[in-house]
Amino acid sequence: MRELKSIFKFMKGSKFIYLLSILSIILATFFTVIGPLLIKTTIDSIIGNKPIDSEQLAELINFLGGKAFLKNNIWIIGIVLIILTILRGIFLYLKNTLSSKSAENTAKSIREELYDHIQKLPYEYHVKADTGELIQRCSSDVETVRRFLAVQFVEVGGSLFNLIFVAYIMFNLHIKMALVSMAAVPIIFIFAFIFFSKVQKIFLEVDEAEGRLSTVLQENLTGIRVVKAFARQNYEIKKFDEKNCEYKDLTFRLIKLLAWYWSISDFICMLQIGTVLAMGSLWAAKGQLSLGTLVVFITYESMLLWPVRQMGRILTDMGKAIVSIGRIEEILEEPTEILEENYEKPQIIGNISFRNVSFAYEDKESVLKGISFDVKAGETIAILGPTGSGKSSLVHLLPRLYDYDRGSIKIDGIELKSIDKKWIRKNVGLVLQEPFLFAKTIRDNIKISNPRLNDKKVFEAAEAASIHNDISSFDKGYDTLVGERGVSLSGGQKQRMAIARTIIVESPIVVFDDSLSAVDAETDIAIREALNERKSKSTTFIISHRISTVQDADLILVLDNGKIVQEGTHETLIKEDGVYKRVYNIQSSFKDNVKEVNI
Ligand SMILES: Nc1ncnc2c1ncn2[C@@H]1O[C@H](COP(=O)(O)OP(=O)(O)OP(=O)(O)O)[C@@H](O)[C@H]1O
């Protein structure tokens, strides 16, 4: 019951409200149960002549004026019944608002904790995680828990109290009638419990089918341009139809099963009420049961059966809530990245030295093997190599997105692993291969690292990234809203926005991970020149497949299969036989016709 413990943990701040809510439902049940007893007393002792068999009711009757007075003023009983109903209504209202309030609070704290935790999970986790699944856990799983807490959790307390209280009164009134009245209770409970445990599988299947339907929809809408470009609309429509039909069929199956359940359970209830009526009338005719008691039993019967029928449902919903909280816990148990360490926070200048660095993703084969090189602050290092040779892996070590397994990386003489992660990330600007822009204005996207930066800084960064003129040509300039994932911008514009966003920070170390690939050669040169002219020159890493992009670098590394196979400057490398010279020859011979040749 680890999951139940977790639910209680999230309810921490709302426990008192829950208690009030349970108290409200108990009081509502109390006022519901009192009504039929008053009717019984009226029939048996006020209209009839039987003595009142409960001290409390006798006191109430005396308070209202006594038996004789009430017999002539029976409307007073009617008013008391209305007051009881109003009180019941008030407490039911209180129960509903209180439990909804605390459920909302609990759901809010689950969502907050989840979101905070997801933000703190390591880069590695997000690389592998299925975003759709994470969204589902943060939304529909939290919703299942919320629904359970808002509706059913308090209902369990209310139903139990109802069952115990009603059974207690029944046994006090007439033992034989109580036994008859309760005969179907275990049958209905077991039937409900077995039925809902069996259909729980279908409930889950419906949930999963709904998840698959939303995944198809989400994927299609995100990749709509690819769908259109490949004229795949019909295929996508068919795929959606399949998932839609699957969801409809499963839901229909569930509804049919539920219809069966409610009909059979109604039948058992009716049979039970019929038995109570028949046996009650028989015993009443024989004088073994008063008319008033018969009325009480008939009224209590439905009060007893309805919550028992619901109980099976509540128990299975509890099962669903437990599954959901388990899925939420799974994320919360993922170890977070320790960012706020008591590690060093040195002033970073940008001298970097790699010595025999090796790195592997988890237990796989090393993707970097014995990498060694030195860079002085302000220098530019270019990295070239075939796809999968380890270029991105190498630069991802710098902001400690991953930690190297062997060897040593020193930044200004300090071992990288001993530098605080948050600190080093503030000092290493990374322009990723696939830039992601937020659905904000261009200005806000550029100054995302520090919203307090002034427009002058924004314009400077945009100019250095050769995007200022493009932005100025838009109707709303820097206030232009970037659509979801920046759909209104071209690939090259998005890349340049990402560059502006990184260089505005003026980090001492900047990494361009193949982030000039979507801009033409002239813009590429313009950006690099602008970067060189900046006051604070950063140590710059450039990953590129284009010789023209890397040729001015102070040091060029050629990687292959995780190893440095060549290193030097453009001048030295074109004189050496090797990959660099080969690529250079291919690219320069096709210079006029082909802009770039990938190696
Ligand atoms: N998160 C990851 N988990 C496991 N393996 C990975 C991960 N990222 C990359 N790899 C593997 O590591 C190797 C090096 O990948 P890396 O992205 O560093 O190459 P690259 O030279 O930058 O390639 P490209 O030019 O295509 O971007 C590849 O074999 C790749 O499959």
TrEMBL record:
- The chain positions of domain ABC transporter read 352-586
Q: Which residues cross the membrane?
A: 16-39, 74-94, 149-171, 177-196, 258-283, 289-308
The Gene Ontology terms for molecular function here are:
ABC-type oligopeptide transporter activity; ATP binding; ATP hydrolysis activity
Q: Indicate the segments forming the ABC transmembrane type-1 domain, all copies.
A: 19-320
Cite the CDD domains for this sequence: ABC_6TM_YknU_like (cd18542)
| Any Pfam family matching the protein | ABC_tran
Q: Which UniProt keywords apply?
A: ATP-binding, Cell membrane, Membrane, Nucleotide-binding, Transmembrane, Transmembrane helix, Transport
What are the annotated GO cellular component locations? plasma membrane
Protein topology in the membrane: Multi-pass membrane protein
The cellular location(s) given in this protein's UniProt record come to: Cell membrane
Domain of life the protein comes from? Bacteria
Establish whether keyword Cell membrane is in the entry.
yes
What the entry lists under PANTHER family is as follows: ATP-BINDING CASSETTE SUB-FAMILY B MEMBER 10, MITOCHONDRIAL, ATP-DEPENDENT PERMEASE MDL1, MITOCHONDRIAL
What name appears for this protein in its UniProt entry?
Answer: ABC transporter ATP-binding protein/permease
Native organism is Anaerosalibacter bizertensis
